[in-house]
Design goal:
Blueprint (H helix, E strand, L loop, with lengths): L5 E3 L5 E3 L2 E2 H8 L3 E5 H18 L7 E3 L6 H10 L2 E4 L2 H9 L7 E3 L6 H9 L4 E4 L2 H14 L3 E8 L21 E2 L4 H11 L3 E7 L10 H21 L5 E6 L14 H19 L5 E5 L2 H4 L3 E13 L3 E6 L8 H5 L5 E3 L9 E6 L8 E8 L7 E5 L20 E5 L2 E6 L4 H5 L4
Parallel strand pairs: 4-20, 5-6, 6-7, 7-8, 8-9, 9-10, 9-11, 11-12, 12-13, 15-17
Antiparallel strand pairs: 1-2, 2-3, 4-14, 14-15, 14-19, 16-19, 17-18, 20-21
Helix pairs in contact: 2-9, 5-6, 8-9
Amino acid sequence: MICDNIAVNAAGHLTFAGYDTVELAEKYGTPLLLMDEERIRQNVRTYKQAMADFFPAGSVPEFASKAFSCKQIYRIMAQEGIDIDVVSSGELYTALAAGFPAENCFFHGNNKTDADLRFAMDSGVGYIVVDSFWELDALDEIAADKGITQKILLRITPGIDPHTNQKINTGSVDSKFGVTLENGQAEVFVREALAKQHLQLCGYHCHVGSQVFDSEVFCDAARIMLQFVAEMQVQYNYLPTMLNLGGGFGVRYLEKQPTVDYRARIKEVADCVREVCAALSIPMPRIMMEPGRSMVADAGMTLYTVGGVKEITGYKNYVSVDGGMTDNPRYALYEAPYTLMLASRADAPVDYTASVVGRCCESGDVIQPNVRLPRPERGDILAVLTTGAYNYSMSSNYNRVPRPPVVMLNAEGDYLAVKRETVEDICRLDV
């Protein structure tokens, strides 16, 4: 199994977090997103403890809300004592509605509206990560109007290619995010930020992309950013108290992908940062990271009911399920890989090849092509593993298909975190 919270029981059913998935499908219906609460907490604690052990005091992970956003996830993050980042007023509102402390929120985004900025400041958000020159000007004006001083970080683009899918590469020069370091714009960005009367520059932020499996990409980013820190100290006598190195490490979607020792990778990054700071004779700032996927991905599993099997003699086979790109658009977006299992007969021989497809009126509604499974039958429960990140948060109502519920699993039992959407819900805003 690709994750140790998955097994097969005596009935031949797939289990997740110790629960029989077929029984959960019968109880809640399908499509169904399951989330292993204990695994989420375990992942959070791994990051939190490693960062506390290896980085300076005050270094904590920030959960990247875009991976999975609902009230319950923010309650969990608050209980675990970490920060969060949000990228919209909707994510911030959800966090606040769950009781998450605003001062522990970092507000990101490359195109925050004036309404976003006002809402963030009215809510008492801790830090706003400024993405552009125009945002810097707008933020200063709004803060002046409110009579406050807003804490900020500057998002700098370090010019690194992490060799991931280009649709999740955020650190190269040619990116919509941040201000480029390579062409000198980042220095101007710092100069202008320091001149603002209603903004307090607390540090720098960078992000190089997702699904990074080793520490070297983060070390490369740290070297570039710390050199920039040293240069800005010389130029403007400014030293940041905080350096945010962006997202967390990759996760295992397939057997062939590596298992990442997050604690060991974080120590490697810390050793690199410490060495570079010593060489540059600058103090080591608080280090922040923004793991989202690696906190929740392997805590998720999606269950579907098989509708039918279509066999095109001499060509290929299709297995249709009752969900699809409405609850998991990631294959359609960037051919994201997944491991699939037949939950109803998880111990049966894997002797059938088919493309698993959804119910939407789109040829591109594919969950995964050319999957090896026991031959499914109508009514079987099919599981897609490692769906805790970017599945529910990217879900839609295309074809007016309701979104699935989210059911949390822990030692005490199973409970609804998000109710199943109904067709009445979909029509509620229509006039």
